[in-house]
# Entry
Amino acid sequence: MLDIIFKIALVGFSLSSLILLIRVIKGPSVPDRVVALDAMGINLAAITALVSMILNTSAYLDVILLFGILSFIGTIAFSKFLEKGEIIENERRN
Amino acid sequence: MSLLHIAILAPLLLAIFIPFVYKRFRSIHTGWFVLWLPAILFIYFLQYLPDIKNQGFVEKTFNWIPSLGINFTAYVDGLGLLFALLITGIGTLVVFYSIYYLAKDKENLGSFYVYLLMFMAAMLGVVLSDNLIVLYAFWELTSFSSFLLIGFWYTKERSRHGAQKSMLITVFGGLSMLGGFIILSLLTGTFSIREIISQAGEISTEPFFILALVLVLLGAFTKSAQFPFHIWLPDAMEAPTPVSAYLHSATMVKAGIYIVARMSPVFAEQGLWIWLVGGVGLLTLFWGSFNAVKQTDLKAILAFSTISQLGMIMSMLGLGAAALHYDHLSENIYMGATVAAVFHLINHATFKGSLFMVAGIVDHETGTRDIRKLGGLMQFMPITATIAFIGTFSMAGLPPFNGFLSKEMFFTSVIHVLSLDIFNLETWGALFPILAWIASVFTFVYSMMLFFKTFRGQYQSEKLKKKPHEAPVGMWIPPAILGSLVILIGFFPNLLSNTILKPAAEVIQSPLINEGHSFDIHISFWHGFKPELFMTIGVIVVGVLLYKTMPKWTAIYNKFPSSLSLNHLYDQGLVHTEKGSNKVTDFYMNGSIRNYMVYIFIAFIGLLTITIIKKDAFFMDKSDLAPIGIYEIVLTLIIVAAAITILMAKSRLTSIIALGAIGYTVALFFVLFRAPDLVLTQLVIETVSVALFLLAFYHLPKINRKEERMRFKLTNAIVAAGVGIVVTIIALSAHSNKLFKSISEYYIENTADKAGGGNMVNVILVDFRGFDTMFEIAVLGIAALGVYGMIKLRLSRRQDR
# Structure
C-alpha cells in the first residue's frame, strides 16, 4: 500500500521536474531558468528521499542535505553572477 | 689477457695517450710517437711465422662475456697472420709517410693519429678474432674510424659527402653481416668461427643457411667495394693520401676479402657461393677497370683500379671454392685460384700502397692530381717516377714485377673455369676468361695512362701552381720500400710461398686439407707456351693499341647515360628516401588532434575486433543477469536523451547543461544501485565541473563565438559507433565469462572485525587499499598546483586575446 503511494509520489515529482525542465529550456530570461533549476534541485532531493524510502535505507539522508546545500549555493552563485557579472570578486581588478 | 691480446689492443691504448703527447710536444711531429708501435707489432707478428708454418695456429682466449659465449679469442693462423703483417707493415710505412706528408703546424695531427691507431687496432681485431661477435665489433670500429679519417678535412663539403657515403654503405653491409653471423650462431650454437667450420657440412641443408650466406656476403661486398657497392670508394678519395694508401688499398677494403676467405670453408660447398663471389668479383673487375680509364684524377684512377683488383681477388676466391667439388682430382687445379688470390692480395697491397703514396707526392709537389694538367714530371722527380714505373707496370701485369705473376695465375684459374662442369658453369663459365681478359686490357691502359700522362709527355708549367721538385727523402722512402718489395717478390716469389702463401691458402681451403690434399706452391716466371702467356701478350698488344688511340674511343664513356650511373642512383635514392619519408610523416603527422584520435580509435576498434573474431570471444550468458526495473529504464532514457542533446545541441551552453544532467542522472543511478558514498561525491564533483565548464564557456573569445551545430562527418560517426559497439560487446562477453568468484566476501566479513569500521567503501579506501588513495590525493595535489602554476606563471605575455 505504502509502496504504491511512494511510486505515485515519485511519478508526481518526475512530472513536476519535467515541467520545470521545459521552463529551463524555454526560458525566456536567465532568472527564469535559474529559479527552475533551483526548484529541480529540491525536486531531486525529494525524489532521493522517496527512493531511499522505497529501498528502505537511511544511507541517503546525506545526499538529500547535499542537494539542498548545492542548489542553494548554485542559485546564490548564479544570482550574484547575474547581478555583478562575477561570482568571486577579484581585488586586483579594482 | 695474453701478449697477443695486448698486441691487438695496443694501438687503441696508444691512441688514448696521443692527444696528451700532441698537446705537450708541439715542436715534434706527433707521428714520431706513433711510428714505433706498428713497427714493433710487425716484428712481433713476424715471430709467429715459424709457429704457423709448423703447427697451423696459435690461439689465446680472454673471457669477455662468457655467459653469452662471447669471448675475445685471438686466433692467429696463416690467413690472419698474412693480414696482420700487411696491416702492421704497411701501417708503419704509412705512418712514416704521413709524418712527411701532413704539415705539423697546419693539420690537427692529434686527431689524425688517434683515428689511424683506432683503425689499426680495429683491423688487427677483425683479422685475428675467432669470435664472430668480437669480429663484428672490430668490423664496425673500422667503419667508424674510416668514416673519421675520410672526413678528416671536415670543412670540405666533398670530404663530408664521401665520409657519409662510405659510412652508410659499409654500415649497411656490416649490419647485414651481423644478421648472417647471428643466423650462423643460431644454426651451430656457437660464435667461434672454427667450431662453425667444423659443423659446416651439417648446417648446409638448413633453410636459413643460404640467407646467412647472402647476408655475410653483403657485408663483405660492401666493405670490399664490390659491384654495385663500389661507389663509396672513389668518393673516399677525399681523405688525406696516407689514409687512402692505408685504408683504401691495403687494409680496410681487404677486410671483405678476408671475410670471404675466412668463411669459405663454411659456405664454399654451395654453388651460389661460387657464382656470387666469382661472378660479382668478375663483374667488379671489369667495371672497375673500365671506369678507371675515364678518370682524370690520379686518386680516382687508383680508386677504380683498387675496385677492379679487389674484384679480381674476389673472383679468384670464388673460383678457388670450386676446388671443393673436385676433391677426387689428385692434382687439384682449382686450388691454384686460392693461391693466386692470396698472392695477388699481397702484391696488390705492395704496388697499390706505393702508387697512392706516389699520387700523394705528385699532389704535394705540384698542387694538383689532375692528369690533364700533369705531364713531363720525370725530369723533376726521377725517384718518384721510378717508383711509379714499378708500381704501374706491376699493376698492368708486366714482367718482371710481381703483378705479372699473379696475373698469370689469375689467367690460369679462369682458363680452368672452362673445364668446370658444375652449377651451369660449363655454359656461362666462358664469360670468366673473356671478361677477365678484357678487364686486363683496360687495366693495362689505365696503368699506362697513370704513368705516362703523369711523368712523361709535355710539361705544362702554366697549369701548375708551383714549380715541381723532388719530394723530401722521408716521403719517398715508404713507397720506395714498397716498390722494392714489388721487385723482390717479382724476382723471388718463392720466398713467400711456403712461409705465408701456403698457410693462408690452407686456411681458406681447410676442408680439402683435412681430406689429405696439400698445396704444392711453386711460382715460376716461365711455364712454357701456355694459353695464359698468349693472353698476356694479347693484353699488351691490344692495350698498347688502345692506349695509342685513346682520344678516338673515349667518347664511348659519354654514351653511357649518367642517369643510370650507380652514383646517380645512390644520390637519387638518398634524396627520394628523405623526401618519401618526409611525405609519409607529413601525411599522417598533420598536427591535428582529431586525426590522431581517429588513428587511436581505429586501432582500438581494429585490434579488439580482430582479437574477438580470432579468439571467438563473443559470448552472452543471460543466467546471471539482474531484473530490470522501471526506474532504471527511465534513468537510462534520460541519459540517452541528454547524450543525444549534447550531440545535437546548437549552443555550447545546452551541451554543458545536458552534460550536467547526465552527471546528476548518474548520481541517481548510484542511488538506485545503493552506493551512497558515490552519490555524494558524484553530486559535488558534477556541480564543480559544470561550474568550471561554464567558466570556460564564459571566457570564450567573442570573435569566433559562432553558435553552430556540430558538423556531421561520416567517418567520425562510424568510428564513434564502432567504439561503442566494440566496448559493449566486450562488456557483455566479459560479464558472461566470469571465471571465479569476487573477493568481496572477505571485505564484507572483515570490515568490522579487522578494520573496526562500519562503512565498507571507506574502509577499503583508507584501510585495505589505502595506497591508491594516497596517490589519488597526490594526483589532486598535482592538479591543484598545476592549475595554480598555469594561472600565476605568465612568462610570455599573450599576444592577442
In short: Strands of chain B lie at 57-65, 70-77. Residues 288 and 307 of chain B are 5 Å apart (CA to CA). DSSP finds 35 helices and two strands in chain B.
